[in-house]
Amino acid sequence: MTVLDGIKAARHSVAHLEMRDAYMLGDPEFIAWKQGKRLDPDADKSTWWRPFLDTVSEVTSRGVQMRRARIVSEPVTDYIRYEYDVTFPNVAAGELIRWLPRRRAADIALPGTDFWLFDNSKLLFTHFSGTGEVVDREWCTEPDVIELCRSAFESVWERSLPHEEYRPV
Question: How far apart are CA 153 and CA 162, in angstroms?
Fold first, then answer.
């Protein structure tokens, strides 16, 4: 099962915790952004990241709460500035996104890698290389690990700022 499959199958909630300051630095969209390309909020939605955003729209329209929290170092990296700049299509699709400066997360017990949590019962870890490339994804069904991740996400969510209020430093 893929991330998209997990999102599509969710009945109540999807939570995604991101904790890296950079992902896939060779991504052509990131490189284009560094060279000045910007997404146009008024452009045809077909230019936005599909099929992910279509899936977000579909599941949120049927009442699934989809939340993403990002823990970031400040001052932020170019990659985080890029993520911030291209987040508006996710928000428009119905995803709730918050940002937490890393200094405010120091006392939260966090797992060692990013994860997706579906309906508080299915957990998908994403393992990355040092340069931010996805190396592997791993499903976990251990109740104690699922609870650690659920609790960590909720703690981050409580302290974080909504996308509309956060300003990268």
Answer: 14
The model's pLDDT over 79-90, given as tens digits with 9 standing for 90+, comes to 999 999 999 999
Q: Rounded to an integer, what distance in angstroms lies between the CA atom of residue 50 and that of residue 4? A: 11
Q: Which domains does the chain have, with CATH numbers?
A: 3-34+48-162 (3.30.870.10)
Q: Which DSSP string corresponds to 45-94? A: GGGS-TTHHHHHHHHHHTT-EEEEEEEE-SSPPHHHHHHHHT-HHHHHHT
Residue pair 58/93 in contact (Cβ under 8 Å)? The answer is: no
Q: Is the pLDDT of residue 57 over 90?
A: yes
Q: What pTM was computed for the model?
A: 0.94
Return all residues near 133 (Cβ < 8 A) that are at least 6 apart. Answer: 24, 26
How far apart, in Å, are the Cα atoms of 30 and each of 21, 38, 148? 13, 10, 32
CA distance 103 to 71: 9
